[in-house]
Q: What sequence folds into this?
């Protein structure tokens, strides 16, 4: 068969969102690829410059539907530095719990979306069934299931409800059991390994050059996690480890990226348990929250998908003068021609699924 | 009494009391048609005419049995898949329609299942069929219209043809040929031509790649499939399903159990099961219609009843594949007395199908290069080893049976 271009997207089961991947194939082998973004651009940054600081949390919630708390947290964290607001310790603990619950929900969403990419529909239903548990948990304090708007500038919306710890513990125990069950179905399955081993390889060096961060970087064996290396909230007081996995010396494949996320879920369970153990009593919202701000602030946090960076400039008014969002998936997806070349057509969903695409935050 | 004898007496009865009077009546009524109608009436009176009519009846009965099984297989697949996935599956049944009527009469705002409701959802197939029939048949503008229509016809007719080819027992057979299993495999191999045709005629890159994959997959799997069957043919000395099943009842094994072909030819059975899975294009070998990358592959452009018939034909092929596996390796319709042989046959077929359903919903799909590698590098040598074992058993062992005595198994 001669070489030809195939357009995958904007409506295609592989895309997980709204983008186009143009691939040039020689028979079944990928010769070239060209990702196209921009179908979901909503000009969040410009909209944010028209709104007051505290209003923007509704926009950041909608940056990524799978992981809205982490993005809201990144924004509030930046604005708190700009406004020099001191967040109460209990609020920081509650934030950490919510962030980790959100990370669990986000990774489960990813795992559920990844399995149909490999042709495994049952996996999707299993992981999404577990995601429901964490959505139920997130619903308890915040009142909604997808876009929480729970983390506010200066703290959190309200304290955790009664019995939250017991419910969380019950669900975490069930979830750990289920992860053990799933290991037979997925990582010990020969066909699953055939599809993911040595597919979509990139080295740690390449990942650094491309700007790939988060679980995709840790899949190369690089021990780098902003929760430890540029710590925020109370992550340094909590007992946890960075989960890494490498397919070989310094490179990652789909399977190592899958395993990193599974390990990260286990670490998140540890973090949540430790948070409940160490959580002090106290206020959940700072007593003094200014409305106006002057100066500039830049923070980066560990999103479920990589480094989320935000840069806010205040000109003394109650609205940000400039607000810049840097999404981790934008750089990761832009590098996709480099790690798609040479693989088969059937590997495209396996590779693009394994890097955990979220178009909402990518197109902003 | 076999199916054919029953059909033959039915044919005699219908010809004498129904068909011949009708044709004679027509011959008297319309002068232009009187000659052909009269000839048909005369022909129905002969032995050959009655035989033909009897075969028509037998084929139709086998077709109806096969179609009933098709509905059951689809239903079984949906329900078992749902249970595997922690769902309930389709629950629509006549009772739920009655409750809908009651709710509507009571002006209920939304239709909810009653608390004590538990339907088995067999009506869902019917509803899906109605939905498919009422949908528009879209033909892409730049598609090759003739081939686009011919593709489904080739695929579906060759699959439905399979239904009448295998016997349910030595008395329930709509066709009998000395080369029965060869005819079945030949009918199996027609379908990829339809796949390739519809993949190419759709004028769609996804469809074309799906069709190409189907062709590659067929070539990689047809050869080990036939070689694994060759062992059985060597043992039985025949292609005839009845002879093969009877041969399996001859030897005995531990505790007097019959030695079905699965025991001496276990390797062949494994190879055959893997290859027939690839032949009927089920997960993990459903590459031609991989929905993740190819968007249902060669069926992308088909809609409405055409698409539905593709799906149905795949289930028919699955059913036929399971039936062939039962005949070749699991002793066919043999079983203890009180249960009729046809039921024994269907029990074995359904056990294989349930096994396939479990496989389908618990493994991912494998890749094209891997499937070809598996077919050419692993299954082909294994099937040759199986043939070698059979040749040793059949041809070489009798010469040495005085010197060495193998256990009863051989």
A:
């Amino acid at each position: 068969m001669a070489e030809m271009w195939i357009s995958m997207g904007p409506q295609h089961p592989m895309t997980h969102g709204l983008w186009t991947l143009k691939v040039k194939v020689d028979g079944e082998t990928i010769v070239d690829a060209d990702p196209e973004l921009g179908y979901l651009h909503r000009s969040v940054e410009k909209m944010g410059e028209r709104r007051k600081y505290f209003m923007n949390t509704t926009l950041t919630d909608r940056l990524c539907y799978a992981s809205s708390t982490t993005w809201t947290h990144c924004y509030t964290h930046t604005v708190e530095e700009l406004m020099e607001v001191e967040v109460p310790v209990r609020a920081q603990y509650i934030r950490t719990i919510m962030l980790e619950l959100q990370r669990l929900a986000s990774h489960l969403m990813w795992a559920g979306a990844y399995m149909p990419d490999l042709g495994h529909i049952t996996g999707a239903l299993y992981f999404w069934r577990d995601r429901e548990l964490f959505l139920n948990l997130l619903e308890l304090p915040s009142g909604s299931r997808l876009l929480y708007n729970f983390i506010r500038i200066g703290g959190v919306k309200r304290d955790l409800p009664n019995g939250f710890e017991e419910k969380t513990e019950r669900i975490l125990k069930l979830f750990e059991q289920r992860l053990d069950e799933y290991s037979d179905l997925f990582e010990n399955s020969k066909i699953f390994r055939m599809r993911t081993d040595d597919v979509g390889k990139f080295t740690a060096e390449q990942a650094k050059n491309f700007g790939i961060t988060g679980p995709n970087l840790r899949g190369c064996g690089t021990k780098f996690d902003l929760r430890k290396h540029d710590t925020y909230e109370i992550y340094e007081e909590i007992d946890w480890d960075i989960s890494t996995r490498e397919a070989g010396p310094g490179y990652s494949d789909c399977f190592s990226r899958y395993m990193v996320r599974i390990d990260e879920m286990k670490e998140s369970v540890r973090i949540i348990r430790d948070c409940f153990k160490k959580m002090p009593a106290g206020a959940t919202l700072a007593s003094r929250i200014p409305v106006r701000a002057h100066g500039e602030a830049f923070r980066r946090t560990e999103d479920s998908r990589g480094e989320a960076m935000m840069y806010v400039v205040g000109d003394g008014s109650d609205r940000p003068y400039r607000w810049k969002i840097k999404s981790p998936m934008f750089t990761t997806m832009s590098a996709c021609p480099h790690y798609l070349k040479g693989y088969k057509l059937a590997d495209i969903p396996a590779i693009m699924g394994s890097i955990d695409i979220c178009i909402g935050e990518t197109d902003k | 009494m076999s199916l054919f004898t029953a059909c033959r007496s039915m044919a005699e009865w219908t010809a004498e009391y129904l068909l011949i009077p009708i044709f004679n009546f027509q011959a008297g009524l319309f002068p232009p048609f009187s000659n052909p109608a009269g000839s048909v009436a005369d022909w129905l009176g002969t032995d050959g005419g009655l035989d033909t009519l009897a075969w028509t009846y037998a084929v139709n009965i086998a077709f109806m049995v096969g179609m009933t099984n098709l509905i059951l297989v689809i239903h079984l697949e949906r329900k078992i898949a749902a249970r595997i996935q922690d769902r309930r599956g389709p629950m629509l049944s006549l009772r739920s329609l009655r409750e809908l009527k009651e709710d509507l009469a009571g002006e209920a705002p939304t239709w909810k299942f009653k608390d004590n409701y538990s339907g088995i959802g067999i009506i869902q197939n019917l509803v899906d069929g109605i939905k498919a029939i009422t949908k528009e048949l879209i033909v892409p503008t730049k598609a090759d219209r003739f081939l686009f229509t011919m593709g489904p016809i080739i695929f579906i007719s060759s699959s439905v043809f399979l239904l009448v080819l295998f016997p349910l027992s030595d008395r329930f057979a709509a066709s009998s040929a000395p080369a029965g299993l060869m005819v079945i495999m030949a009918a199996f191999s027609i379908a990829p031509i339809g796949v390739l045709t519809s993949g190419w005629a759709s004028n769609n890159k996804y469809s074309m790649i799906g069709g190409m994959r189907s062709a590659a997959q067929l070539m990689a799997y047809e050869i080990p499939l036939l070689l694994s069957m060759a062992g059985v043919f060597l043992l039985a000395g025949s292609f005839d399903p009845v002879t093969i099943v009877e041969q399996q009842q001859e030897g005995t094994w531990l505790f007097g159990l019959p030695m079905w072909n699965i025991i001496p030819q276990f390797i062949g059975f494994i190879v055959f099961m893997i290859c027939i899975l690839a032949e009927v294009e089920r997960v993990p070998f459903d590459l031609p219609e991989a929905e993740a990358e190819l968007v249902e592959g060669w069926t992308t452009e088909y809609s409405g009843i055409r698409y539905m018939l593709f799906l149905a034909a795949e289930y028919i092929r699955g059913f036929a594949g399971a039936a062939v596996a039962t005949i070749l390796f699991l002793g066919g319709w043999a079983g203890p007395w009180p249960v009729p042989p046809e039921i024994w046959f269907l029990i074995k077929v359904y056990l294989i199908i349930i096994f396939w359903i479990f496989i389908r919903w618990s493994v991912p799909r494998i890749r094209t290069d891997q499937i070809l590698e598996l077919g050419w590098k692993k299954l082909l040598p294994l099937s040759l080893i199986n043939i070698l074992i059979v040749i040793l058993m059949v041809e070489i062992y009798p010469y040495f049976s005085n010197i060495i005595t193998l256990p009863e198994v051989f």
In short: The interface with chain A takes residues 81, 84-87, 205-206, 209, 212-213, 283-284, 286-287, 290-295, 361-370 of chain B (CB under 8 Å). Chain B is about 70% helix and 0% strand.
